[in-house]
């Protein structure tokens, strides 16, 4: 199990605390420092069953500068979104937990963290 976090994020700290409290075996990936490649983002999207725009933090200043809110959300635009996430990792929603069973969850709630633990 791996969790992608930004240590400055309260939801990330909460998720890590819950994993620790549950005695989970996991690794931490500080994704702003250890930036996921476009391929890794594609893999996580597949595991999440989501599209890149579903995990994009469109309220971030970088997103506003790029104008992502106005980008098309279709198959033809998918790679543009993935490239933006790889080049601007701050735009990736957090935390993301990749579970033991090959799935993943956006773990913004305790329930989502527990869901990942149960997989």
What's the gist of this structure?
The protein is an alpha+beta fold and about 120 residues long.
Structural overview:
By secondary structure, this protein is of the alpha+beta class. It has five helices and four strands. The chain has helices at about 10-20, 40-50, 60-65, 80-85, 110-115, and strands at about 1-5, 25-30, 95-100, 105. Strands 2-1-3-4 form a four-stranded mixed sheet, with helices on both faces. A hairpin with a 5-residue loop joins strand 3 and strand 4. The radius of gyration is 14 Å and the shape is globular. The mean pLDDT is about 95.
N-to-C span: 10 Å
H-E order: EHEHHHEEH
Low-confidence stretches: none
Which structural class should the secondary elements be placed in?
A: alpha+beta
Order of strands, widest sheet: 2-1-3-4
Radius of gyration, in angstroms, nearest whole number: 14 Å
> Shape from CA axes?
globular
Number of strands: 4
* Helical content (DSSP H or I, runs of 4+): 25-40%
Average pLDDT number: 96
Strand content: 5-15%
Number of helices: 5
What can be said about the biggest beta sheet?
4 strands, mixed
Can you give keywords for this protein?
globular, alpha+beta, 119 residues, 5 helices, 4-stranded mixed sheet
């Amino acid at each position: 199990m791996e969790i992608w976090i930004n240590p400055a994020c309260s939801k990330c700290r909460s998720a890590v605390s819950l994993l620790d409290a549950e005695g989970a075996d996991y690794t931490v990936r500080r994704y702003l420092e250890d930036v996921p490649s476009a391929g890794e983002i594609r893999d996580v999207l597949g595991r999440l069953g989501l599209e890149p725009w579903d995990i994009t933090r469109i309220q971030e200043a970088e997103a506003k500068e790029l104008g992502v809110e106005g980008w098309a959300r279709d198959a033809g635009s998918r790679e543009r979104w993935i490239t933006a996430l790889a080049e601007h990792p701050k735009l990736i929603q957090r935390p993301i937990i990749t579970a033991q069973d090959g799935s993943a969850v956006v773990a913004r709630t305790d329930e989502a963290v527990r869901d990942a633990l149960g997989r």
